[in-house]
Design goal:
little secondary structure, two-stranded parallel sheet, 1 helix, 4 strands, about 10% helix, Trimer_LpxA-like_sf
């Protein structure tokens, strides 16, 4: 719901691109690699995620220091 509100009022804050589906809010300091397509993933505040694979419909609630699978 909140992302729908962003789209209606401040759509410039939402991310866009060929790899973005729907309303997505990505922090301005985050870097998404080429070919990155994440479906329904929530990354908690102050998380460091160094590469790897994040499975759809997951929550990342702890930092990942080396490439791994986010389950």
């Amino acid at each position: 719901m909140i992302l729908d509100t962003f789209q209606m009022n401040t759509s410039s804050k939402l991310s866009s691109g060929s790899h973005i589906l729907g309303n997505v809010l990505v922090h301005e300091t985050a870097v998404l690699g080429e070919g990155c397509l994440i479906e329904d993933v929530h990354v908690c505040d102050e998380i460091y995620y160094n590469g790897g694979v994040v499975l759809p419909h997951k929550e990342i609630n702890s930092s990942i220091l080396k490439p791994d699978i986010g389950m």
